[in-house]
Design goal:
alpha+beta; four-stranded antiparallel β-sheet; 4 strands; elongated
Length: about 110
Amino acid sequence: MQKAVLKLDVCCERTKQKAMSTVCCLPGVQSVDVKEGKLTVVGDIDAFMIVKKLKKICYTEIITVGPAKEPEKKPEPKPDPKLQEVICHYIPTCFPPYYHNFNGCDR
């Protein structure tokens, strides 16, 4: 998993959208973000291939390429051994298959 930060020389919103759609279509890309002329790509990627594709759209420079930060894993809280789980089963009462006080038609 790699994170690549690229500098894009985009002049309009259409060029930025075209660059994002080009990078999204590449294999191994997991996330793409564009902020202030910098394109951040995360995934199993080849930065050279991304730059090669983007140079057809706009001027592109590689700023950094490195491993992506893994989200910190929080340790799961251990269940308290003193607390026990109580399971209550509710059995609904059964109604007879006929209606009470049924006198035919309501007239």
